Amino acid sequence: MRNHRVRVYRSDEELPREGQLAWAMAQVAGDPVDVTDDVADMIVNRVIDNAGVAAASVGRSAPSAARDQAAAHPPSTGGPGATVFALDRRVSVEWAAFANGVAVRELDFHDTFLAADYSHPGDNIPPILAVAQHMGADGQALLRGIATGYELQIDLVLAISLHRHKIDHVAHLGPSAAAGIGTLLDLPTEVIYQAIGQALHTTTATRQSRKGEISSWKAYAPAFAGKVAVESVDRAMRGQTSPSPIYEGEDGVIAWLLDGPDAHYDVPLPEQGEPKRAILASYTKEHSAEYQAQAWIDLARKLFRENAEVGDPERVDSIVIHTSHHTHFVIGSGAADPQKYDPNASRETLDHSLPYIFAVALQDGTWHHEASYAPARAARPDTVALWRKITTAEDEEWTNRYHAAGAGQSYGGRVVITLTDGRQIVDEIAVADAHPGGARPFGRDEYIAKFRRLAVPVLGEDEAQRFLDVAVRLPELGPKELQDLTFAALPGALPGAGRPGLF
């Protein structure tokens, strides 16, 4: 790996394209390096993971509305279009990317990478797959494109914090997805460079979508970034250009949206000829909740087994979760969002409320992507009473461990439960059980089990198995077989027609 130094340049300073971050990213995308076997295996795992969580969500409001929008846009003349989960016809490529992106993101249940910023790098897969189907690519080309999308998003997340300036994390996704499509199609560096610039320029937005009363737009945000990436590549292929230098310019993203005119970053990027392996640093979720809650659900399950009294609000005086800065201020009481303690809050809000999640997991000893968020479950009086006794506190040790590199990195903390009789129960957890460094790391068997648990009730046994049979053969799929990397839902699994829109 090499570090690409990024800083702001005045308009009267000369910064050749070869020195720009967008160009360096385009060079990485254009490097025809082979995908290693372990990376290919992990890409297959994540394709399976995305499909499982999408299957579990297809009947919900946001994916249904996105699917209805997509259905109104037939394929363009440039190819046969692309498939949409649970839709029996093809649609225009950018709308397929959008609809599938919403379905994947809806339950907050697919993969994650956390460092200087946040990301769900599996959001790269829907737009890259949609373009692969539309353009008749094969499985090997799709693998190369997805490897690029993961690599560049994770490299950006390692170096550049967006959330510190209240910019949503999809500003790293638009450029990475555009670059991944460029790799898929073997486009020239110049074209990929222009697509990256357009995608970044049009996907910067505020983090209000993840603050206060969180809305259905949370699922749409990365899907919209993927759609924009497809459109950016299309324009760049037609010879259209983008704002430049998009990162380093005097009025660019860094100068006005991030750390300002005096900022500098060192973005790690692969050397020419170096395999793109960043996907191996990412991790999926065992539970349908924001990633920084994963370890706390696992700890709550352990406490439930060992100390049943911790779920009884009559016996608990207070619960304080000592954790990292990010966890405290994003999903903890440090966010100062009263909605995080509101039993009438939206599902999207509750899956970003660590006090709620910890309370329910303490009482139930388990977590379910639907039942744990049901309005009746959230409003249960004993749950509300326990929930409001839970607070979080930033702990410098756990913040440092959050930012540590390698095996020392942690997304957990220490909990102190004070009982009404004065006794304390203290325990801690570093990473989620399913994390590569956790008690039960996910491998292929666990990805398939998660897929089957989520997908079979919606797709049926035969369709779920058919999809798995295709997905595990991804590296060897030809263009025709790649069209089968989708699924149909059981009769009655989808809602009827929703509210009409413009299309």
CATH class of the largest domain: Mainly Alpha
Question: SS-based structural class?
Answer: alpha+beta
Number of E-state strands: 8
The residue ranges in which pLDDT falls below 50 over 5 or more consecutive positions are none
N to C succession of SSEs: EHHHHEEHHHHHHEHEHHHHHEHEEHHH
What does this structure look like?
- With 503 residues, this protein is an alpha+beta fold.
- It folds into 2 domains: 2-264, 2-methylcitrate dehydratase PrpD (Orthogonal Bundle), CATH 1.10.4100.10; 291-429, 60s Ribosomal Protein L30, Chain: A (2-Layer Sandwich), CATH 3.30.1330.
- Helix content is 45%, strand content 8%.
- It is built from 20 helices and 8 strands.
- The chain has helices at 21-30, 37-57, 61-71, 93-105, 125-135, 139-159, 170-185, 189-202, 217-237, 253-257, 294-306, 325-330, 347-350, 354-364, 375-378, 381-387, 396-403, 444-459, 461-471, 479-482, and strands spanning 2-7, 113-114, 118-119, 264-269, 316-323, 390-394, 413-419, 424-429.
- It has a 4-stranded mixed β-sheet with strand order 6-5-7-8.
- Strand 7 (413-419) and strand 8 (424-429) form a beta hairpin.
- It is globular and about 70 Å long.
- The model has no long low-confidence stretch (mean pLDDT 96).
- Residues 287-472 form the MmgE/PrpD C-terminal domain.
- Pfam families: MmgE_PrpD_C, MmgE_PrpD_N.
- This is MmgE/PrpD family protein.
- Residues 34-264 form the MmgE/PrpD N-terminal domain.
